[in-house]
Amino acid sequence: MTTWLQGMWAMPIIRSLLGSIVLIVIGKLILYPITAKIIASMPHTKDDVGFKGRVHAIRDAVHMLGNAILFCIMIFLVLSMTFNIFGIDIVPTLLSAGVITIIVSVIVGLAMQAMIKDVIAWLFNIYEDRYRVGEQVKFNMALEGTITAMHMRFLNIRDDEKKVHSVPNSWINVVSNHTRPQ
């Protein structure tokens, strides 16, 4: 057993695995308490019917974020272990790829700007509980109707003429909710 552990490729793999497990545990220890604090600070009343749905949506969003980060860590780990087994030193490659990564990150960031705005607006709507599915609303003093579906990037609203409009979440600034008493 000791000869296997002292093998040429076993120790870097074990170090990589332990390092990634530590990163994942630390990430979970940080991410979940933050989520609990956000949920605890959400405004609601005892008879709030939509509160459980909002909590579920926020937990789903945090879970998706955690899974995306975990996926990236695992892909990097597998690639680095594979290169290490074959004796390929990836440090110079990673250093030279840094500039390319910055350029690609800027391009992707600019391309995803609208989607990120929509998702952030969706999270704030869930947190603030401005409207729900089935409520009669008016957006930006222009579009009025009943909300039929809410998604991460957009929501569907049916107007009085029975037309369904898909509205990006970032487009919504002023909301007049005709269903809830003020």
Characterize the structure shown.
By secondary structure, this protein is α+β, with helices and mostly antiparallel strands. The protein is 59% helix and 14% strand. The chain contains five helices and five strands. It has helices spanning 2-5, 10-40, 51-85, 91-111, 113-128, and strands at 136-139, 143-150, 154-158, 164-168, 175-177. The protein has a five-stranded antiparallel β-sheet with strand order 4-3-2-1-5, with no helix packed on it. The longest helix is centred in the middle third of the chain and has 35 residues, at 51-85. It is elongated. It starts with a helix and ends in a 5-residue tail after the last strand.
